[in-house]
Amino acid sequence: MQGASHMLLEEPLRLASVLAPAKPKVFPSLTKIVGTLGPKSHSVEVIQECLTAGMSVARFDFSWMDAEYHQETLDNLRKAAQNVKKLCPVMLDTLGPEIQVHNSTGGPIELKVGNHVTITPDINKALSAEILPIKFGDLAKDVKKGDTLFMGQYLFTGSETTSVWLEVVDTSGENVNCLVKNTATLAGPIFTLHASQVHISLPTLSEYDKQVISTWGSRNNVDIISLSHTRSAEDVKELKSFLQSHDLPETQIYAKIENSEGLDHFDEILKEADGIIISRGDLGIDLPPENVFMFQKTAIHKCNLEGKPVIVTRVVDSMIDNLRPTRAEATDVANAVLDGTDGILLGAETLRGLYPVDAVSTVGRICAEAETVYNQPLQFKKVMWHVGDPMPHEESVASAAVGSAIKVKAAAIVVFTFSGRAARLVSKYRPTMPVLAVIFPREGSDPSMWRSYGTTQARQCFAVRGVYPLMGSTDEAETGGLTKEEYGIKLALNYGRSVGIVKPFDRVIIFEKIGDSSVVKIIECEG
């Protein structure tokens, strides 16, 4: 059928499965879930439930609360992860060039449509329905008449009345005079100001961000930094240099695309970053609503071809206050999976939402169902075509491993890797089964140094679609005298059996490097 979708859908079969009772999942979805930890997900108990429900990555948003609070949360995360015997990567989300309005009283401010309000850098002035003081002195230089500004505690979700839309009327010195375009009540201690399609003359990596990374980030050896409001490849390069100078060379950088500048320079950013986060909150404000879906699909497609993880945000906002998502939200999650996303990021849903654990489990179930109709053969062909001929050796073997796994209906692909790169390469070809990545130390490496390095590489794999890392060892006390291959296979299969991936007589693909060569083999599990 011409114009076919990215699904593999045999209608009678799929309709029957929709009507049948849902089968309990014995393993999480291949699509990863990033949970933002905060007031409603701060305790060891709730974090533990989130991990059990399918949360793979823990995000710490430094646009609010202080390092002490986040440290308490991280300490609780470590306890929870230890309790459930799981690794969980830490993602530090930067503040970036964000303009904030501080409401010292915390009282509500009502703005009415048709009224005028002045935004001023004079922070000595009291916040009111007529005056909005900000901590930025150059807004009047950056904006012009007719520009659109948005302000609110959480910015527009499309359903709330706590964000206001302003139109710039004129500027007067350092002040910006605006017309209120909708009635709204601003509430909370901090409001965020977003200037739509305007370059704000603030650095992407703020001094506050540098302070947080060099202290909290360095002390906790964070695995991933989400660089908010990434606008160019230079932003990523600057952060890389900063990480190198602060003893964080292994920390990955995920560029968070949330404005038109980032969109304009997307290809260059993608080459430089380790991963991409499509931040649809601010992006949905910066772009006309009818254009957001096209950028999402295009960006995911480009990330998939390059084999770089991509994560989508703002999917089930209604679950902040409700136990179930809307029908449109559920479909939106599924469509992101069908587009090829590696992960779904939950922000307010887990940070301040009433049902953080249910948000994780619900999104996980939707992802798992969507994966059953994901068009893997089409994606496989697209990546093969993009890589081209002659294929690099590693690409050839990774694609062969996935192709073989599909043909023999393997239960899993086991990858032996030092850095996680081989596992990410296998994931690029979107296997329909989990990839169990056994992270081994390099020959001759210092065991004590490698334990820290290897754990970081393993945790980072949790952000990649379908990859589930395991810490391997070459210590004879742990391997029991087995060869590296025998030990790695035993470790992976034991884990696979424990979580219900591998059953007796299942076939498993083994992908490993031996010297300068890569080898793919098929084994059958014992009965």
Automatic annotation (TrEMBL):
Known pathway: Carbohydrate degradation; glycolysis; pyruvate from D-glyceraldehyde 3-phosphate: step 5/5
Q: Which residues form the Pyruvate kinase C-terminal domain?
A: 395-514
Q: Which Gene3D superfamilies match?
A: Phosphoenolpyruvate-binding domains, PK beta-barrel domain-like, Pyruvate kinase, C-terminal domain
Please provide the record's keywords in A-Z order: ATP-binding, Glycolysis, Kinase, Magnesium, Metal-binding, Nucleotide-binding, Photosynthesis, Pyruvate, Transferase
Cofactor dependence is on: K(+)
One Pfam annotation reads PK
What are the residue boundaries of the Pyruvate kinase barrel domain, all occurrences included? 31-360
Name the chain's protein: Pyruvate kinase
Check the record and name the InterPro entries matching this protein: Pyr_Knase, Pyrv/PenolPyrv_kinase-like_dom, Pyrv_kinase-like_dom_sf, Pyrv_Knase-like_insert_dom_sf, Pyrv_Knase_brl, Pyrv_Knase_C, Pyrv_Knase_C_sf, Pyrv_Knase_insert_dom_sf
Under which EC number(s) is this enzyme classified? 2.7.1.40
Look up and give the organism this protein is from.
Panicum miliaceum (Proso millet)
Q: What SUPFAM superfamilies does the record point to? A: Phosphoenolpyruvate/pyruvate domain, PK beta-barrel domain-like, PK C-terminal domain-like
Q: Which GO terms describe its biological process?
A: photosynthesis
